[in-house]
Design goal:
By secondary structure, the protein is an alpha/beta fold. The protein has a domain of about 150 residues: Rossmann fold (3-Layer(aba) Sandwich), CATH 3.40.50. It is about 25% helix and about 25% strand. Helix 2 packs across helix 3.
């Protein structure tokens, strides 16, 4: 009888320990790339996106939460579904392809022999949010032409409100990255613009100056007709 009681007690302890070791399922999140227009053209400017660098604290799978005191905590019930760096790259790539209407967008490094018309370099130093904190993006971008010359650079800081839930926070961060892509596309269009070729046949004609009419000249008596020489053709103009 005592052995049976010990057996029941042991089974109860095992069940209690097993129940304590069960964790709630972890939700996986991905950035929302929006619905950019798929390029219909088969040709266009060759754009190289990258390198893209994220801050060190973003190089992890956990989804971080910004607190009111500025500290960061790990959301134990949520994680990124894969690499956040790769997720941001794909979002920017698809957004730029749709906004620039060119299918020729490559991720750096593109390999030897590739000469891009424009290179877009992006550095993100902050991308986070919290239950009581808005989504914030701090980034810098640089545009380099074919010769490696700087064609544009900007530091930006963007904020986006949300409803507090993790899903709402991820959606807000996605919208910030889409706004970044919009600014990149606007600057890229300016950098890729080819100056209009001057057309020498389309010169601007100066307006005629108004002059005082002169009095009519006296009539000139007609010249006597000239007889053409024999064997010579005479051209009159």
């Amino acid at each position: 009888m005592m052995l049976r009681s010990w057996t029941l007690l042991l089974m109860t302890l095992v069940l209690v320990m097993a129940g304590c070791s069960v964790h709630p399922p972890v939700a996986l999140y991905q950035l929302d790339g929006g619905q950019p227009q798929v390029p219909t053209a088969t040709d266009g400017a060759l754009v190289l996106l990258g390198p893209l660098t994220l801050a060190d604290y973003l190089q992890r799978g956990e989804l971080l939460q910004r607190q009111a005191d500025g500290s960061l905590s790990v959301a134990s019930e949520a994680q990124w579904a894969g690499s956040l760096n790769a997720d941001v790259e794909q979002l920017l790539l698809r957004q730029l392809a749709g906004r620039l209407q060119t299918p020729n967008i490559l991720l750096a490094p593109a390999g030897p022999g590739v000469s891009a018309d424009l290179q877009v370099q992006v550095s993100i130093s902050r991308l986070d949010s919290g239950p009581q904190m808005p989504a914030v993006l701090h980034a810098q971008w640089r545009l380099l032409d074919k010769a490696g010359q700087l064609q544009g650079s900007r530091l930006l800081q963007l904020e986006q409100a949300h409803q507090g839930s993790l899903a709402s926070q991820v959606q807000a961060q996605s919208r910030l990255l889409q706004q970044l892509a919009e600014q990149l596309a606007t600057a890229a269009v300016t950098a890729l613009k080819v100056p209009a070729v001057a057309n020498p046949t389309n010169k601007r004609v100066a307006p005629a100056r108004k002059t005082t009419p002169l009095p009519p000249a006296p009539p000139v008596p007609p010249a006597p007709p000239v007889a053409p020489a024999h064997g010579v053709e005479v051209f009159r103009f």
